[in-house]
C-alpha cells in the first residue's frame, strides 16, 4: 500500500460557519496505480491532490504514506518525505523564470544532495529522454507552453519519485502535445510509477486504471 486516507476532512471557517473543502474522504492507493480525480470546478480536486502531496494540511482524519503517519509528523519531516517520494506536475508549470532549463531540472537534485557529477548525468539523461537537449540553456520565457510543460514533467521525474501528482497536466496544451504528455505518463506508469492526476478530460482519464469522482468535497 502506497498511501491511505481515513475519514479525512478539511474545512475553512467563514462567518462562524465551517465550509467543507473535503468531507470524509477514504482512499487507498496501491503502488503502480494510475488514478484520475474528476469532478466539477470547486469540488475539491486540487485540494485533495495538495493534501496527498503534503502541500496542504487537513483538519481531521488520518493519512498514512508508506510506513509513516503523515498526520502526526512535524512539518520538516513531512517536507523530507514528499521531496523523497513525490513529484509534482502543475498546470502552470511552476518553473523558475530566472533559471535555465538545465538549472530548473537540477533544482530537485540539489535539494536531495546529489553530487555535482551525478546531477550532470541525471540532467543530461532527462534532456535526452524528452528531446530538449537543444533547449537546455534557454529560460522558460523562451519556450512554448508545450516545451515548458515537458520541462515541468522532466523536473518532476528527475529524482525518480514513487508517486507523481499531476494537476490538469495538459490544461494549457494543444491536443497533440496533450497526447504526448499522456503517453509519457502511461509509459512511466508501465514502469511502475504511481500516478494521480486531476483532469477535466474524459480522454485523459481513460489512460488511468480508475477514476475518483468528487462532488462538493465528497467522493461519489
TrEMBL record:
A Pfam cross-reference name: ABC_tran
PROSITE patterns hit by this protein: ABC_TRANSPORTER_1, ABC_TRANSPORTER_2
Record's protein name: ABC-type lipoprotein export system, ATPase component
Family assignment from sequence similarity: Belongs to the ABC transporter superfamily. Macrolide exporter (TC 3.A.1.122) family.
Swiss-Prot/TrEMBL keywords: ATP-binding, Lipoprotein, Nucleotide-binding, Translocase, Transport
InterPro entries: AAA+_ATPase, ABC_transporter-like_ATP-bd, ABC_transporter-like_CS, MacB-like_ATP-bd, P-loop_NTPase
A GO MF term: ATP binding
SMART domains: AAA
Amino acid at each position: 500500500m502506497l498511501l491511505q486516507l481515513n475519514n479525512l476532512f478539511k474545512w475553512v471557517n467563514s462567518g462562524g460557519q465551517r465550509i467543507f473543502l473535503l468531507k470524509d474522504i477514504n482512499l487507498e492507493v496501491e503502488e503502480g496505480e494510475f488514478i484520475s480525480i474528476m469532478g466539477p470546478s470547486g469540488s475539491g480536486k486540487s485540494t485533495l491532490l495538495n493534501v496527498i502531496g503534503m502541500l496542504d494540511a487537513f483538519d481531521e482524519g488520518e493519512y498514512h504514506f508508506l510506513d509513516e503517519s503523515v498526520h502526526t509528523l512535524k512539518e520538516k519531516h513531512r517536507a523530507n518525505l514528499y521531496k523523497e517520494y513525490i513529484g509534482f506536475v502543475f498546470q502552470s508549470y511552476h518553473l523558475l523564470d530566472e533559471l535555465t532549463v538545465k538549472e530548473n531540472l537540477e533544482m530537485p537534485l540539489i535539494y536531495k544532495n546529489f553530487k555535482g557529477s551525478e546531477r550532470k548525468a541525471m540532467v543530461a539523461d532527462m534532456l535526452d529522454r524528452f528531446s530538449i537537449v537543444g533547449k537546455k540553456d534557454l529560460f522558460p520565457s523562451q519556450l512554448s507552453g508545450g516545451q515548458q510543460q515537458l520541462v515541468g514533467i522532466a523536473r518532476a521525474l528527475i529524482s525518480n519519485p514513487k508517486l507523481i501528482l499531476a494537476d490538469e497536466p495538459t490544461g494549457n496544451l494543444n491536443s497533440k502535445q496533450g497526447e504526448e504528455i499522456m503517453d509519457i505518463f502511461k509509459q512511466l506508469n508501465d514502469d511502475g510509477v504511481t500516478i494521480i492526476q486531476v483532469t477535466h478530460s474524459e480522454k485523459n482519464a481513460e489512460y488511468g486504471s480508475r477514476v475518483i469522482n468528487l462532488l462538493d468535497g465528497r467522493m461519489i
